[in-house]
Amino acid sequence: MAIQSEITVHKIAHPKGSKVDFGAEIRGADLENLSELDFAVIRRALYENSVVLLKNQQTLSPRAQFELTQRFDPVSTSYGHGKTIDAKRSVLHPDLKTIPHQPQVQVIGNGPVAEYEGLKNITLKHPHHKTFHADPLSEADDRDNTRFYRWHIDAALYGLHAPRVTTLMAVKVPKTEPLNLRYDDESNDEISVPRGSTAFASSYKTYDLLSEEDKQFARTTKVQYAPHPYIWMSPARSRSDGLGLVSEGKELPYSELPPIEKDKVKILPMTWKNPVTGQLALQVHPSAIEKLHLADGTVIDDLKEVREIVHRMQRPGIAPEFVYPIDWEEGDLAIFNNHGVLHSVTGSFLPEEVRIFRQCNLAASEGPLGPDN
Ligand SMILES: [Fe+2]
Fold it and tell me: Can you give the residue ranges of the TauD/TfdA-like domain (predicted)?
């Protein structure tokens, strides 16, 4: 008798007008007791759908969340950002609180929390775009409107390899009215998002939307990331669409960064291959880029030019019709392919609105799969 998994996979039904072709719900999985076959079904679903959602997982322990995350890369053991040195200057510093008994799992969210998983009397702060965007929304517009805070890959991009997947669990979700997310660029684009939604865009779609000439460029170009990128970028500010920084020369000079070890600087392919489907993703962390290495050996090191090239290639992929803003419900566990999507925080909360999420990702055991060319 063949042993079968009871897990089923259901494509997410996106609203009318959406052209999002990714996202699926996985049903019937017992995450604390996954057989090899069950995990194989989940892994395939993840790589075929980029983002998968499992409902009613509120009883899942931080340990089980870590173990699930680790199954995608069994050799990996440590958090995706490691123990970031000089963390106080990093733009990531205010957003994460580490669970003492499971240090690969971070608590993120908003508001005062008396006790959660061994963390006592903590105050969480939902990242607000006004701390990162060059030209934020006005105070008057801020409660009803929002921005993409920062489109990104979860990755240290210095020394450590980019985690394969991130798991994100919604523990406590304040439900309020949806927000109008404004791009505030020349497009007049806007999209309605649930407050505090995590927005996803498929980097496979972004690649597919390129011209043949740009696809060729993307397959043959490598991206060099700044050393200690989150410290390097800390004085700089973002475009209003959250997709990379404006070029005002504010990045820290190397002399003001922690010591730089040359072999830790990341020069990565511009396209990353899906290990299951073979599709290529245009996978670039737009805020952390510093140089482009072209096929003919040319290095583009003019930061403004580097950013213009990458923004022109990535912007079509975050158009409203291609963005999947998750409508979080308590107990939701999302797993996303961190080598195939960009994601962004959205929204804002009042100081007293309590929101608790748990995030886990692990520095990968090896670099991303590049294109075959
Ligand atoms: Fe993230």
Answer: 21-360
Q: What is the mean pLDDT of residues 179-203?
A: 97
**Ligand 1 center to residue 335 CA distance, Å?**
12
CA distance 73 to 60: 20
CA 87 to chain centroid: 19
Structure tokens at 364: 């990968």
Q: Round to whole Å and give the CA distance between 338 and 155.
A: 9
Range 106-139 burial, b when 16+ CB lie within 10 A, else e: bbbbbbebeebbeeeebebbbbbbeebbeebbee
Sign of the Cα pseudo-torsion (345, 324, 64, 48, in order): negative
> Given the structure tokens 């030019």, which residue do they identify?
305
Surrounding residues of ion ligand 1, Cβ less than 5 A:
154
Model confidence, pTM: 0.96
- CA–centroid distance for 228 within its chain: 18
Read off the pLDDT of residues 56-93 as tens digits, 9 standing for 90 and up.
Answer: 999 999 999 999 999 999 998 888 888 754 567 788 76
The three-class DSSP label of residue 3 is coil
Using the mean position of ligand 1's atoms as its centre, give its distance from the Cα of residue 152 in Å.
Answer: 6
Rounded mean pLDDT, 314-327: 98
- Between vectors from CA 90 to CA 85 and to CA 93, what angle results, nearest 5°? 90
CA of 344 to the centre of ligand 1 (A): 7
CA-CA distance, 151 to 115, in Å (whole number)?
31
